[in-house]
TrEMBL record:
Residues 125-135 have a biased composition (Polar residues). Residues 614-675 form the PilB3-like C-terminal domain. GO terms for molecular function: ATP hydrolysis activity. This is Type II secretion system protein E. CDD domains: VirB11-like_ATPase (cd01130).
Amino acid sequence: MKKKVIDSEAAGPASKKIGDSVEKEKSVISMLGIDATRAPQKAEAPVKLMAEAAEDRASLLLKSSPPPSPTAAQKPDHEPTPAGVEPEPPLNGQLKGEAIDAVGVDEAPAESKAEAYEPSIESGLETQIQPSVESLGSEEDILKEFNSIIKPEEGIIKAEVEEKKEKGGRKEKARLRQKIVFEPYDPEKHGPMAIFTGVPGYEEVERYWVDEPYAFVVILYNESTNNYLYYVVEPSLTVFEKELLIEVYDRLQDVLMMEKLDATTDKKQLLKEKTTQIINDYIGKIDTKSYYKILYYINRDYLEFGKINPIMHDSFIEDISNNGFDTPVFLYHKNYENIMTNIVFSEKQLDSYVIRLAQRCGKHISIAEPMVDATMPDGSRIQMTLGKEITTRGSTFTIRKFKEVPITPIDLIAWNTFSSEEMAYLWLCIENNKSLLFSGGTASGKTSSLNAVSLFIPPKAKVISLEDTRELKLPHMNWIPGLTRDSFTADGKGAIEMFALLKAALRQRPEYLLVGEVRGKEALTLFQAMSTGHTTFSTMHADSVESAIHRLENPPISVPRTMITALDIVSIQAQTYLKNKRVRRNMKLVEINDIDPNTRNIRTNDIFVWNSATDKFDRVGESRVLAEIAQRRAWSKRELSNELLRRQKVLEYMLNNNIREFRQIAAIIHAYAVKPGRVVEKLGIKV
């Protein structure tokens, strides 16, 4: 993937000196857009009080601003920090007890930087902020920063005007409220939002946007420790912007409580309107860049995932793991594998954040029930614990990220997880109602493969899926997605387990039954369904056919050996290494034949086997399943071979022509199920 290099140049804010207190008062009044000469006599006192209150407010908010200092030199790409420039605080010292700044690198040197904005959810969905600002800076410095941010001329579309109205036969003047609309943010005009100046001891490897133009990621490498660091860079806030953000948060909570929301409400647009209205009413005209910074953090914490939001937008991340408070969040990166980040939660923040995540997932977590499995709004799977009840380092969460658009068979071929010949074999078998089990270790891609090959199910077939946490996504209209449910009470009443769901599903006359994972007594019912003619797909944890059969035969599953022969195909998947790179491969496609009458062992037949030396998939055996399909359809061996070859070429056509979009692939596969000749002709495929 081609990474977009980010310009890290920054311009320092302009400053203006203000004299005595009289001039300051006039300046603040003028900045707030108040014309005392035009206001009615009765309004003079409130206007004066408003101006004085605004000046006092600005002085109090900005009294702790650090003294002005030279703008830190920016670090060029792939070079260490230049000599003479004060570096950022050492990373190691921060990891021992202090939270690492997850917002961004401030523009001042390290010793004069105020602590970054850290939002925390104290209870429920209420967002509160707990900044810690050092008491540095003089009154003159405060006003300098105030003047550099407040710009009367910027962003105004409609100024304050007067219009005449007829009321009781008498003309009166009515004052209209100022309406401020901010111009679109332009990095070239307004300067970059996020700035990265480097981390001592680390060299930059690469950087790329995850939420342009607000947040990007820098991959750093420390040669002495041989460690990579995943550094999230977000817009840095000045002291004034932090305090303004606190003010907007406080007022938003009251404003949003009065709103009536429904399914058609555009929450992002509503949040933007209310934020702009609050700034307009209580602050006035601010710098365009500052406005978009405020809007970014409001959206990030109200609508998205807070501090880990940039990570959630990174398509290279597979797992996100927070192991406790005051410890860095760890990730599994597709290119760098397990990697540490600069994001850290304090104990109070982490507890509140876990509670909020549970609520966003529609679940409840508490000290009484401190462990929850759930599905996040974007489809990712999450496991959470609360407090120190069962995890001694505090609350934890682990997120297994899933793509919003499901993985397709073409993706699996492109990644060489399966070959096109294997996928054509599975396509023909699934279309002809053969049952399938995906087996493998943790994170071997079982569920992703199950979801991908489910596209081969005929478009009008009735499909029922059963899962503990929702992961499967199918394009079929005739599909019932079933989900287990936790109990409402401490004694377990109200719980709907997989076994109950499966029994109910069999009464719904499914043609294809998909079970997320078999691990208990529901497996016996599943194999009973196979024996009675239902086509079933499922997954289980086992690293070989032998261990899969052993797990099925023994408690707690205890499936009789004669029932196991109802299963047609087992796919063994693994996460393995290829030239020091971790990859996912289908190790074997194995058919279950029958029981040996002498040894009573289950006889299996390997059809495809992955060759680690060549990274190819070799066909090593003759298929009993394909022979049964040919017999049922009255195909000769030549006709069977041609049908497999046609399907293989259709898959390769989509791969070679970069047809990777989920709906397009589903449309071609479903069209082939209805009119295979027309599809082959239209694609120009000859066999």
